[in-house]
Amino acid sequence: MPGPKGSGIFNAFMSWWGHYPVTQFAVLIGLLAIFWAMGSNTVQTMHRLGITPGFGFLHQSANFAIGESLIAYAPSDTFGRAALAGLLNTIAIALSGCVLATVVGVSLGIARLSGNFLLAGLVRWYVEVVRNTPLLLQLFFWSAVTHAFPAPRQAFNPFGVIFLSNRGISVPSLRVEGLSISAVVLSILIVFAAALSLARYRTGKPIERIGPWGVVFLALLGFVVAFLFGGAQANIDVPALRGFNITGGLNLTPEFAALLIGLVVNSSATIAEIVRSGIQSVPAGQWEAARSLGLQPGKIMRLVILPQALRVIIPLMTSSYLDLTKNSSLAVAIGFPDLVSVLNTTANQSGQVLEALAIIVVSYLTLNLAVSAIMNRYNQRIESRGFLPR
Amino acid sequence: MNSAVDPLARKMKWRQIWQKWLYGLFGTPLNTLITVFVVALLFWTVPSLLRWLFLDATWTGSAKDCASNTGACWAFIGAKLRFILFALYPPELDWRPTLVIGLLASLLVITGTPKFWTRHLVYLWIGVVILMWMLMAGTLVGPKVPTSRWGGLALTLLISVVGFACAFPIAILLALARRSKMGGLRTLSILFIETVRGVPMIAILYVAMLLVPMMLPAGFSPDALVRAQIGLTLFVAAYLAEVIRAGLQSVPHGQAEAASALGFGYWHIVRLIVLPQALRAVIPALVNLAIGILLNSTLVAVIGIFDLLNAAKNAANDPVWLGFYDESYIFVGLIYFSLCYSASRYSLWLERHLRAVKS
């Protein structure tokens, strides 16, 4: 065992460091030496190729176009702005993918458990096919599908409001005009103040906790107030065929649509299995006990089964969200300019391979940490619900 | 036994099944509605799909015959089968990738049989993996074939299996380090595992393809397939380490303590007592991971290696047979599906089998 005497901090460190302190130290030094050698080799290679190491290149002009971007971007903009555009594209696809995959996946999971044999069998085969073929193959397939849609004039037009054409998928969108941010912030503050003072007036003491749903509700109420009294207008913008093109609404490019559909289909199959196994993990006795207490089926699900199933479901859901975020990097194979795709082009154009890859790694680790942190907060709430005495 | 012969009992049993189905399909108004909806959906999609797949399909002939027909062009698969399976490998040496696929299949069958789970299996794996690589490269017999010409199904299976095999020792060390009381090694292990698990596999492959050549001394550059294989192996090792760690956690403390009381050293305890139990506990997870590796190995297509998926894509880029992507993708999709589906079925069987052996 390491030295029994010495100062407190040193002792604590040595007991944390544990057995074989010298061997461990040697391993650490060896690894550092390898990294140092690789690093100096990289710097030498860069000098040989005439590249300056460091992140200064982010201020240089990128000189390549990006297919689509949430922020204004032109080829004359910097590499830094291109990377930001790619990052925002990744976040957009990950966010919309997670939301849609949850909706589709939970529905499929419930359908799988429904008493209907046909529906359950259909979902079962959907899950089997999706989970047993490569995601890249599925993305190639969806990419071929979205690019094979007809020209805008012959666009598929299901329900009259969605257009599927080779320019992408156009869906109706909500357009709000004349709503100023200050009006929204002001009315949300007013609504919160009103709610808190009303609660104090009614109960005589301040409320301890509003809870997340309360916050969401009050914020929405604030929006409505700002909308009603701020003189704003909202209209639903339905896409329509004008001339040779489809205008209006929200247009998803074929690449974005293919990636989104591919990721949603792939993750929804996983989520369906998670939901199914979560609900099935609740012992049958819980159903029977709730039924014998006279609870209605809907209430059994909501009050007895789901709170217990969620404890199984949420951690698995977290990892499937993380998978979706990481899988969105396959965009590079079907031509959607996500973070990896843009930085790959950047690396090829500027030769700053090390820096570009470092940005990719750091961005994904940060995104992962963010998703994990949010889901862990939610998980703590779920975990402590039900069996802790109040 | 008797009830099977008794006609009345058999009739009752059939009635029960019939009633169960009847209830399952038309039990409640909602159920009936769902059934009608699903049947309508099937009637709408299945006939046209079947017509495209089989009735109107072209089974033999040339690209011209296919173009004049509205159905699928399976003649394309017939003409391109060799390319999809072996890609750019020299055609006169086709026996090599064929032999490799055969060797791999027998290796997997042997590995899948619980009777053969002894330490000899480890030696067999080491031997067969080295043999396969040398066979493909032509180190032992015949002309040498550079890795840039390897491809198709043989390559996909090879990199998946080699990745899994090489990741195993690394993963065991990582899992042991992560559970050890040695702070330094534990931190290193956690750093490696969490970083690799936090980034997409494509980023790891880019590191292997673009960065590694810069990191090595000038004039020293291993070939692309080896670099991709190392990237894939390290990626797999991080995930495998977590699976093995779960297995290590499932082995009761008493096992190691008892062995230690009997005078076993650390590595003996790990090798003879803990690991056999730990690995046995996570076999289903290992099979799932193996399926994941096979599916993820397609990503090497992005960095330009001719795996099964890339070969299929390029088969449809041939000017003579241009554009038969659907057929090509369906064909390789079926290959992937049959491999992965049978593996997951096997995993279910194995779970039942192991439970039966235990009780």
Automatic annotation (TrEMBL), chain B:
Compartments where found: Cell inner membrane; Cell membrane
GO terms for MF: transmembrane transporter activity
One matching Pfam family: BPD_transp_1
Keywords assigned by UniProt, alphabetized: Cell membrane, Membrane, Transmembrane, Transmembrane helix, Transport
Alphabetical list of InterPro entries matching this protein: AA_ABC_transptr_permease_3TM (IPR010065), ArtM/GltK/GlnP/TcyL/YhdX-like (IPR043429), MetI-like (IPR000515), MetI-like_sf (IPR035906)
Topological relation to the membrane, as annotated: Multi-pass membrane protein
GO biological process annotation, one example: amino acid transport
GO cellular component: ATP-binding cassette (ABC) transporter complex
Record NCBIfam families: HEQRo_perm_3TM
Protein name in UniProt: Amino acid ABC transporter permease
